[in-house]
Amino acid sequence: MAPARLELARGGAAVTTRQPDRDRLWKANREVQVLVVEDDSAIGEPLATGLRREGFEVMLVQSAAAALSAPPADLVLLDLGLPDAHGFEVCRQLRARSTVPIIIVTARDDETDRVVGLELGADDYVVKPFGFRELVARIRAVLRRSAAQPSATSGPQVIGELEIDRRTHRVLLAGEEVQLTPKEYDLLALLALDPGAMVTRREILAEVWDPHWYGTSKTVDVHIASLRKKLGDPKWIETSRGVGFRLAVPQ
After folding, report:
1. CB of 35 within 8 A of CB of 6?
2. 1 within some domain
3. Residue 228 · residue 236 · CB < 8 Å
């Protein structure tokens, strides 16, 4: 059966056409707290419902005051047209006190608004109407970028004999450097964010390539094959047919 698409129209109408793919209920998202700041319940309620189906924990608020007094979240979806304050002010205050990822979701598609939002600290800017799948892909991409940010004191990630240094983009295997292309490195780094967790093809394309990728998904298979060859053992990357891939330590 074809997957769902929740379209949020500029005027506020929301229509769900089909049920979502089971493989999009990604286990790694079950504990991710998303704060949805949206004053229009015709948009906010179905959006919150869709995100819960994807495995996120969602808090929905309808004002700037409620957003600024809400418990800490892992990510904020922020509308600009709030009844008690401009969304830009909410973005500014949230960014001043935390590094929480912020995605602005609004009907305002003017370039100036995009620039202002991003300069105030938003991590992404999505214009209504938008596809629900694209929004989820952007949420996961922003969360992964946030999780992958190295601190000044962080060292390489060690997975068995594999070492990934996110500060220098170097990969070592048994002490020897592995020469990877930029896409191969991004793909390996993505899988290594949660070793053992399944990452779907759609998520890989959205994060390593682009949420709007319209090319063939076979490019993922080509890069996976190249990575396996360079890592010297195909067991480093396991395949779940029809679902995706996971990073595993060869036994």
Report:
1. no
2. no
3. yes
Q: Are 51 and 36 in contact (CB under 8 A)?
A: yes
Could you tell me if 132 and 242 lie in one domain? no
**Which residues are registered as beta bridge partners of 9?**
none
Q: Decide which of 148, 172, 193 is a domain's last residue.
A: 148
Express each pLDDT in 228-251 by its tens digit.
999 999 999 999 888 899 999 887
Residues facing 86 on adjacent strands: 81
For residues 95 and 208, membership in a common domain is answered with: no
- Each residue's pLDDT tens digit, 198-234: 888 888 888 888 766 666 667 888 999 999 999 999 9
Side by side, the strands of the sheet bearing 162-165 are 157-159, 162-165, 170-173, 176-177
CA atoms within 13 A on the CB side of 120: 22
Tokens of 2: 């074809």
Domain that holds residue 67: 6-148
Same domain, 162 and 205: yes
* Whole-model pTM over 0.85: no
